[in-house]
Amino acid sequence: MESLVTFLRLTLLSMVPFVLAAQGTMLGGRTGVFNVAQEGIMLVGASLGFIGSYLAGGSTLVGIAAAVLVGGIFGLALAYFTTTLKMNQFVIGLSLLFIGTGLSTLIPKLVIGVTLSQPLIPTLQDLPIPLLSQIPFLGTVLFSHNILVYFAIVLSIGLWYFLFRTQLGLELRSVGENPNAADSLGINTSKHRYMTAIIGGMLIGLAGAYLPMVYTGTFTEGMVKGRGWLTIALTFFAGWSPLPVLYGSLFFAGIEVASYRFQAGGIAIPYQYLLMVPYLATILVMMFTFRKTRVPGFLGNNYDREKRSL
Amino acid sequence: MEKEAILELRNIRKVFDKNVALDSVSFSLYPGEIHGLLGGNGAGKTTLMNVLYGLYRRDDGDINFHGQKLNIQGPKDAITHGIGMVHQHFLQIGSYTVLENIVLGTDVSHPVTMKLSAEAQKIIDLGNRFRLPVDPNAVVDTLPVGTRQKVEILKALYRGVEVLILDEPTTNLTPQEVDDLFESLRVIVNEGLSIVFITHKLREVLHVCDRITVLREGRNITSLTRAEASEEIFVRAMVGDQMKIEGSVYFSHGSMANTAVDESAIPALEMHDVGLKTKEGISRLAGLNFQIRQGELFGVAGVAGNGQRELAECVTGVVIPTEGKILMKGEDVTGVSVCELLKDWISYIPEDRLHDGFLPKANVAQNLILGYHRQKPYCEGSFIKWDTVYDKVRGYIGEYKIKTNGPEDPGGNLSGGNIQRVMIARAFSMNSHMMVAHNPTRGLDIPSMDFVYNKMLERKETGASTLLISEDLDELLLICDRIAVLYRGQIVGILDRKDFDKYAIGRLMSGIQAEETADLRAAS
Amino acid sequence: MTIVRKLVPYVIAIIASFAAAGIFIALTGANVFQAYETILFTSFRTPNGFVQTLLKFIPLTLQALAFTIPLTAGKFNMGGEGQMIVGAIAASVVGILGADLPAVILLPLVVLAGVAAGAIWGFIPAWLLYKFNINEILTSMLLNFVSFQIIDLVATGALRDPVAGHPTTVQIGQGGFLPMLIKNPPLNAGLILALLVAAGVYLYTTRTTGGYELVATGANPRAAAVFGINVKRMFVFSIVLAGAIAGLSGVIEVAGVQHRLIVGLQHNFLVLGVIIALISRGNNLAVPFVAFFIAILEIGASAMQRTMNVPIEMVFIVEALVLLFVLLSDVFRRR
Last residue of some domain: B375, B399, B430? Predict the structure, then answer.
């Protein structure tokens, strides 16, 4: 029982980077902008989140602001190159991925210098919700977390309502389904694409900052460890919808926690096998779900009003 | 004409890359009229209206509306001023409902709860008023083409437009549906709106329009009222002085000699109970039984999406039918791959040239040998003989009048009409017993259409057969020996040339006689 | 004339990216022009510098080809890293287990094992694409992370070299070493293999019917299929071939350079390979030339970090910027 509580609690805790990054990916995809730079944006978010907090004397808020800002800039760049300059989304995504990866290690070296032991920043405080956190079992599992856990859940529900129950959501989705139709009705397709790409980038940057701020207290090279790529897989089999993204993140976090718990549990399998599990499990899940999921009709394409249909 | 024009376009110019699409074109529209905008493909009709609707930026010229100069930057401005447009390829979100499609981009009464009952009622009322009934809650993807067009027109009416532009609205409608559409258009103009009716079909404008403007190659040719016009004037205006009208197939009204078909020879194609089901078990084609004789030009009519593409792909071997047998000259070719069939047996002009037939990222030469690249003289062993290929390709570019800088020009540089010429050149470049041509003249101007018809008729003389699948009923009536009608994946009737009747075929196309024919077949 | 015009955007891109990086380098307090000099000329100052550049050039060329071949068919192989690692693993395992075999037997076995392992590692995403229609970008990328664990497992397992501090296996048999072209500084015959592969790939894609089918598939898979090309088979073939070539790069690292399996031998080769492939715009003929240029930058970057204390990532940013500027030049040509 005790270990089940810990497992569920940790799963909720580890779900956050997946939720934030996948909702960011989903949001961009809903207007047709397919971001593949998650791994790089998360890395640079982690790096700047750490550096921001370090420079501000351990201020979490500054760290988060720095990560969100840099994520937004990457989102803006993606939107500009693809929507305004109409360049291939995947190639631009890869370029941004590389730049993000490079910057993530360059910046700490420039700011802190090459040191043997990286400095530490304070990690995020838990904010138990009064009364609710007193409930046995559920209180520990659900209601005594850091603020970003609550934010991830509220964000998911909020995005669902926004996309499927508001006029703006209807318009936004139409851009990702058929921008020709949206444009012909006077909807500003570029504006929607810029907005979602930027907000999406911010969420992905924040997802990166979560790693040093909750898990390690410091930045290490390549610390995202493929979570960015897992996020893309997750977004696909969540069918680019906010609520399935939330459930899917729980699944991913569960696998991640389980593989670490096994490792700590001293079971006699080489730990390397356990560390393969998230990637193999993802491929396995894709085998069964990939064909059935729905994808926004215009995902990954750029809309050019004056390009004549031949 | 005492009335003031409500809309005037003056000296509109539009250039794409280096191609002048519109060269100083003017156009005026009077209140309460249906104004036909007539011309062959590539004449600039749609481009002109896209400029008016704000989809294309004009390079020069003025737009005056109610006597005031309009500065239209995008569709939003056009809609605000009361201009609506129904595009030939409907601009709809397939996964949205009719209601969502219609209100999209307007301010709804409850933007944060999306309770849309008031909007739904308004759509129903509009539908009743203009004889365009639709179910607001139906998902657009599930609707037939005719209904989707009603949705498009309602979309404009819902926004309270004064001017409604319809781009080739009769494509894909049965003759009966065309009549219904024309009735609705009359109701609309009687309520005070004005309509621009874009078409390449002369008979339609003569039937429904009050005034007619003809464009050719991006220029104004003439503008006349219905009363002062004769068919001859328009024909000449559409094709220019270059083309000989007397000898043409296009203007022959189907009176060209029909050579007799040798009925004793082995049929070029035999379909025996051919059926096709998707993996999910949905039937696309069922119980197809017919023969095409050697030297026959066999037409297939039907509203798009009734199995035409599947039929073409079964005959060409792109897909293997799930039931039945296909014989060519008595040989069973069911399940033989396209690659094999392209050697002497078949040639193919696919319907969707951009998706199914063309390599935009490859050059013209690479496009022209697609499918034939493993045949002589293009290859020797495992190597392609590019010198031979380029020589041949230069010949095709001349013969088929493909406008390009040469064999190494990237395909993406070609215009739609020229891509279609590549499709045609490729299909005619090698001998074949059976040509499958699906909407082969789409996007071609009238002289080029005539060229294709002549090429097809020439095939008859050598005993080669053609399966012509077309959405353009007039085209089929013009040159086919027999016409079969496809409805929901089944052949619901085959007519001999002597029995051709537009409305009878139209009834078959809309499935009206389907039940009766089925009864007849069961009885016999 | 046309070749000059084609080179212009590249030259502008390089100048622009160096200018951008110069600002950062200046911020670190280092001498910008000395840094430029180090980056560009280290390769040509000493024989050792030049051989080091060639040793970088080999895996970079092969990794780039492992990306361009599927790209010709319109597919993205992001698994070059994993394919290289499993190739290296197979080569070392065979090389260690067969250490007593003579070179005539062992060397071909080592090469074949590595190439086959890379091909198999490429076959997995190809098969998933063929059978389940799963996006190959994701699967090939995720398999890289799996391969990181496998190499760790092998290098810390039974074959581990106990005296080495870093996870490393013992040396492979002498018979498995690639012959040397030059003894000192050491340059192995992998260079010739890489050049042969590059030439072969170029001839295949431009001259043969199979190459034509690959190009047609990449240009429009639907149209290619309608006209009789088995596009799914082309996808599988291109990714498997890419895997084999990436596997070969792993073999050369083991049998030509390190003579053992070292965790981390894949360095940054995947990312650089992709950058090279994209700067070449998928043109197989351009790949070796671009790869050589990037190899110069990489060798220069290490020297700059050593002698001037400017982080090596600075050059990586330059490379990414060159790519971005080259891509941008397409946009301006369109206008």
Answer: B430
B159 and B34 housed in the same domain? yes
Q: B317: which 2 tokens?
A: 């071997």
Give B93 to chain A, closest Cα distance, Å.
Answer: 6
Segment B156-177 shows an average pLDDT of 92
Q: How many CB pairs under 8 A join A and B?
A: 83
Q: What's the one-letter identity of residue B438?
A: H
Q: Most C CBs within 10 Å: which of B359, B363, B364, B432, as the mutation test of the C interface? A: B359
Both B424 and B437 in one domain: the answer is no
Q: B383-384 and B219-225 as β-strands: parallel, antiparallel, unpaired?
A: unpaired
Is B311 inside a domain boundary? Answer: yes
Last residue of a domain, one of B408, B430, B452: B430
Same domain, B276 and B384: no
pLDDT at A269 over 90: no
Domains of chain C are: 53-304 (1.10.3470)
Q: What is the 3-state secondary structure (H, E, C) of A179-206?
A: HHHHHHCCCCHHHHHHHHHHHHHHHHHH
pTM: 0.93
Residue keyed to tokens 């404009």: B156
Structural domain range at position B397: 358-430
* Predicted confidence band of residue B305 (pLDDT cuts 50, 70, 90): confident
pLDDT value for B1: 46
- Between A137-151, A155-169, B260-274, C189-203, the lowest mean confidence (pLDDT) is in B260-274
- Shared domain check, B24 and B100: yes
Q: Flag whether B351 is in a domain.
A: no
- CA-CA distances (angstroms) from residue B343 to A128, A151, A246? 75, 64, 54
ipTM: 0.92
Subunits close to A (at least 3 CB pairs below 8 A): B, C
* Same structural domain, B149 and B290: no
Ranges assigned E (strand) in chain C: 180-182, 187-188
In angstroms, the separation between the Cα of residue B382 and the nearest Cα of chain C is 6
- Res B138: pLDDT: 96
Residues B383 and B457 in one domain: no
Helix (H) or strand (E) holding B167: strand B163-167
pLDDT value at residue B513: 63
pLDDT 10s digits, B407-461: 999 998 888 889 999 999 999 999 999 999 999 998 888 888 989 999 999 998 8
Same domain, yes or no, for B330 and B375? no
Cis peptide upstream of residue B144 (ω within 30 degrees of 0) = no
Which residues on chain A are in Cβ contact (under 8 Å) with C316? 98, 102, 106
* Domain total in chain B: 3
Task: List beta partners, residue B269.
Answer: B292, B328
Across the A:C interface, residue pairs with CB atoms under 8 Å apart total: 106
Residue B279 near chain A (CB below 8 Å): no
**B452 and B390, same structural domain?**
no
For residue A137, the cross-strand partners are none
Nearest to A102 among C137, C138, C316 (CB): C316
pLDDT 10s digits, B233-257: 888 888 887 777 777 888 776 666 5
The 3-class secondary structure across A64-104, one letter per residue, is HHHHHHHHHHHHHHHHHHHHHCCCCHHHHHHHHHHHHHHHH
Cβ–Cβ gap C132/A98 under 8 Å: no
Whether the CB of C231 is below 8 Å from some CB of chain B: the reply is no
Q: Is the pLDDT of residue C278 over 80?
A: yes
Distance of CA A206 to the CA centre of its chain: 7
What are the backbone angles phi and psi of residue B438, rounded to the nearest 5°? Answer: -110, 115
User: Is residue A165 within 8 Å of residue B113, measured between CB atoms?
Assistant: yes
CATH number at residue B132: 3.40.50.300
The verdict on residue B250 lying in a domain is no
Chosen for mutation from C149, C267, C329 (greatest number of chain A CBs closer than 10 Å) is C149
Residue B350 inside a domain? The answer is no
